[in-house]
Amino acid sequence: MSLKDLKDVTYYDLNNEINIPVNGQIPLNKDQEALQAFLTQNVEPNTKKFASLKDRFDYLLANDYIETDFYHKYQFEFIQSLYAYLKSQNFHFKTFMAAYKFYAQYALRTNDNDYYLENYIDRVAMNALYFADGDEHLAMDLADEMIHQRYQPATPSFLNAGRKQRGELVSCFLIQTTDDMNTIGRTINSALQLSRIGGGVGINLSNLRGAGDPIKNIEGAASGVVPVMKLLEDSFSYSNQLGQRQGAGVVYLSVFHPDIIAFLSAKKENADEKIRLKTLSLGITVPDKFYELCRDNQNMYLFSPYDVEREYGVPFSYVDITKEYDNMVANDSIRKKQLPARELETEIGKLQQESGYPYIINIDTANRDNPIDGRIVMSNLCSEILQVQTPSTVDNTQTYVQMGRDISCNLGSTNIVNLMQSPDFGHSVETMVRALTFITDHSDIDVVPSIQNGNKLGHTIGLGGMGLHSFFAKNKMMYGDPDTIEFTNIYFMLLNYWTLVASNQIAKERHTTFYNFEKSAYADGSYFDKYTNQNGEFIPQSNKVKSLFKDIFIPTAEDWESLKQAVMKDGLYHQNRLAVAPNGSISYINDTTASLHPIINRIEERQEKKIGNIYYPAPYLSNETLPYYKSAYDTDMRKVIDVYAAAQQHVDQGMSMTLFMRSTIPEGLYEWKNGRTNKMTTRDLSILRNYAHKKGLKSIYYVRTFTDDEGEIGANQCESCVI
After folding, report:
1. pLDDT for 531-584, tens place per residue?
2. Residues 6+ apart with CB under 8 A from 700
3. Which of 34, 282, 423, 623 holds its CA 20 to 30 A away from the CA of 394?
4. From CA 446, how far away is CA 204, in angstroms rounded?
């Protein structure tokens, strides 16, 4: 029997029976029956057997399944002890979906695809050994974090660690182009190369001159950004990881770019085929000035990037539009055109209703909260990466005349339910930081030198969280209530504190800091002011939250002062440390809810290729937790924004926050709907975007709409940052 010959299996049918109530109850026992059937009928007979652990590793090495370098950094006796510990922890998948997802997407198989070569313990061991890089103590710590599912490396890291035939360990990339043909050509080549090696690619087009701008003093010669977008979409379509999946990319444009209407129109269903974008994602960078002009119902000016760069001496993205807006309006040397700000705001809302796009990056918020010297100009395919970049200049031979700094994403996630049960929260976080540090240290994207340069200088990582709604439900807390906001505040404060402690310790050990540390708000200590001058904002207040953190160290203002002094003395190794990705299949393997947002359904329905529907019950679902699992589509999105805002104040990068809307809004959900149509309108989205901006969120990912015919618009198809 092999994986190719599976017949008469029962686990799919058993899993599907979860969706058939019995006496008004969800038959969760059917999922456990499906899990056991899957392990018995699929996994056990199709896992290659070995006489001993040594025989297994000899086979994997001899047949080029795993790399040799990391393996030879350990004595085999240690590997045996690592495995003995992992087996003693008695790990079991809790749901059919968790086991199915692991074996379908992560487990190493024979080259003929007939047999599994590893189970979950094997994959955890491979990650621990690989990321510890010969450090036995760290390898044991990592194994401990992963087998208890307190830490989850990003999908590319978890999947590829230790494999001989593997992709990159990093999740996604951010690059930008400047306003000349050489750089545009280099950007298209970079998109091809990055899509080939895996992950999603974010590209900033704001610096390109608009349609009708001059080329070599010939008026009206420039074609604008839309043709470049089409070239990029075709590039991603062509470079599709050997046909395994569609290449994925997102392009960002400033809301004050003269091509903004054409940019948005290219994603509309009724757009002309010559300009219509079918697969490329769209994002816009939105300065505070846009919100102000919309609020005051003013006309807005769109500025020629070509002229702005001539006047200011820097690319368009690097000009603070909110600060310079009036000066740019008054400057007759800058071409500009007008339109009503609310008209553009409505166009944004219409497209979000129709497609889920564009993502929104509140660029002034991101830069105002940025402790690093430099400017953030864009984000990534999932809107959670926000790091400083510098532009590159390329000559006629496609050689870098000026090497800029671009970005690769080195991501991992905490499982909130499980980390809250850690015997040592701080040590757990330090272990995770060290695992992520290995990834940034060993990432070498030489096909795009600007990314290679940015990673080398910044040592950036992005630790996030998943399972927030699981935690709330398990502890009988209603998503969005004051206690949940307070919990989120304290949890992410702790992540911030301990990642700073770990980064400072690594900098001290290596006598190395990230590039330009001395110019950062960490170096002068100002970053720490809100923590050292606090009035208990970051100490548990309610009895509920106090009880949740009763066994966990909570740093006081004095502890923050000590950390501040340590950082000012020895620095930080990592330029960036925290980011909350959207999560995806990996949250199922962790038997938890994705990211920080509410669940969609108590019994989630997943469409799997060639199989049909698979059903996944919400973690810890029971009669007791049922009331606390309200669908995101029935939740006031302001509550979701409030929860994310509680985390955002501690997260130095961004968070992939999705807005969940119904085409027909449930009665009483939003007070501004009273006496108006119950259909979702652009006004609803505008109110929520403004609320998110007011609450200090740096980004809004998809707007996901559940339609009256039970379809979904803007459902997350991103596979690059799903952790």
Report:
1. 999 999 999 999 999 999 999 999 999 999 999 999 999 999 999 999 999 987
2. 359, 360, 383, 657, 658, 659, 689, 692
3. 282
4. 20
d(CA 85, CA 147): 10
Q: CB of 396 within 8 A of CB of 182?
A: yes
Distance (Å, whole) CA 347 – CA 290: 14
CATH number for 341? 3.20.70.20
Amino acid letter, 379: S
CA distance 592 to 604: 12
- CA nearest neighbour of 348 among 275, 286, 270: 286
Q: Give the chain's largest Cα–Cα span.
A: 81
| Active site members | 380, 382, 384
**CB–CB of 664/680 below 8 Å?**
yes
In angstroms, the first-to-last Cα distance of the chain is 33
pTM for the full predicted model: 0.96
Q: How many domains does the chain contain in total?
A: 1
Question: What's the gap between Cα 331 and its chain centre?
Answer: 40
Angle at 447 between CA 442 and CA 448, to 5 degrees: 90
Q: Which residue has the tokens 């079918």?
A: 278
Residue 584 lies in a domain: no
pLDDT at 723: 46
For residue 241, being part of any structural domain is answered with yes
For residue 437, give the nearest of 515, 383, 514, 491 by alpha carbon. 514
Burial of 569 (0-12, 13-18, 19+ CB in 10 A): exposed
* Rounded CA separation 211/225 (Å): 7
Task: Answer yes or no: is 319 within a domain.
Answer: yes
For the record, the structure tokens of 445 come out as 């994207």
Return the number of other C-beta atoms located less than 10 Å from residue 425's C-beta. 23
Query: What is d(CA 13, CA 372) in angstroms, rounded to the nearest whole number?
Result: 53
Answer whether 11's CB lies under 8 Å from 34's CB: yes
Q: Residue 294 is part of which domain span?
A: 172-401
Convert 407-417 to b/e letters by CB count within 10 Å (16 or more is b). bbbbbbbbbbb
pLDDT number for residue 419: 98
Q: What is the DSSP letter of 94?
A: S
Q: Which two tokens stand for residue 426?
A: 């701080």
Instruction: Report whether 454 contacts 611 (CB < 8 A).
Output: no
Within a domain: 422: no
DSSP class of 602: S
pLDDT tens-digit map of 10-45:
999 999 999 888 888 889 999 999 999 999 999 999
